[in-house]
Amino acid sequence: MPYIYGMQVERSDKEIVVRITENLDSKRLQGILDLIRYGELTAKSEATQAEADELASSINKSWWAKNKSRFTQ
Fold first, then answer.
1. pTM higher than 0.70 for the full model?
2. Over the stretch 23-57, which tens digit does the pLDDT of each residue have?
């Protein structure tokens, strides 16, 4: 059972349990959980960085086209 800076990590055959001291800010905790979730969701992805960049650019252009009038006059 490693203990690192207020965290305790336990590993079994089926799960990993992480205990964190109660003084951790809830926004930081949510950020950590979001990062773990992102890792789970992207672990099996075969997309390249170039494909991800292209998709992000396309989404940004589409969003800007729909919302530009809200920010410019």
1. no
2. 888 888 899 899 999 999 999 999 999 999 999 99
The dihedral sign for the CA sequence 34, 18, 11, 9: positive
Q: How far apart are CA 12 and CA 16, in angstroms?
A: 6
Q: DSSP of 18-66, one letter per residue?
A: EEE-TTS-HHHHHHHHHHHHHHHHHTT----HHHHHHHHHHHHHHHHHH
Closest CA to 20 of 30, 12, 70: 30
Residues contacting residue 16 through CB under 8 Å, at least 6 positions apart: 9, 10
| Cα 46 from Cα 48, distance rounded (Å) | 6
Count Cα atoms within 13 angstroms, Cβ side, for 46: 0
